[in-house]
């Protein structure tokens, strides 16, 4: 089994059906499909029953949140790689899994692709750090797009499951742990997923909690000397940007002066 596709859901029947249909339309068939529902009270369970013959394993029962649900999926997963395609998310096209896995082998445990995000301001293609090595500093200031990354199942045996004491950043913590463990990744220059932007991680009201959790993870994983170095680099970059803006403004003012009679 090459890949375990894992969907978690809670009271998002419409999004769940959209995601299920996206998975079962994949032309590649060497996958299993696991759906973990948190005991939804909407139409979700009925939808799971309708598509039950297309789903390898599904449960509908209360859980302690997103990451416990993901962990339930990981525990059941038998594929070489895990991919989290949560309710509302869909594959970019019907050939995604085939293009990644058919007649291909990977020596690295993390496969990064492009995540498409549709927002009110337009459609964005996040290249997931692109065709280069990802560094610890990249994770310190950003993240890897979880929905556009395939994770070798054995990494969860090596680093543990998602930490359920965090509500928003446990996937980021896990990627941090893999970077500290010197795990390598490869960039797949292709669209993987169209990401549903309505989830908790994109809700502005949870921004404060996200920052609080990230700081706790950094305190837990990153030595203070390294953190101080990273923060210094960030401040230097801010100063460089201010300087560049100052130079551009000066050139613009001089140009205006030159046009005066």
From TrEMBL:
InterPro entries according to UniProt: Glyco_trans_2-like, Nucleotide-diphossugar_trans
Tell whether Iron-sulfur is among the UniProt keywords. no
Q: Alphabetically list the UniProt keywords.
A: Glycosyltransferase, Transferase
Taxonomically, the superkingdom here is Bacteria
- In this chain the Glycosyltransferase 2-like domain maps to 4-116
Query: Does the keyword Transmembrane helix feature in the UniProt annotation?
Result: no
Give the residue range of the signal peptide: none
Molecular function (Gene Ontology), one example: glycosyltransferase activity
Q: What is its EC number?
A: 2.4.-.-
What name appears for this protein in its UniProt entry?
Answer: Glycosyltransferase family 2 protein
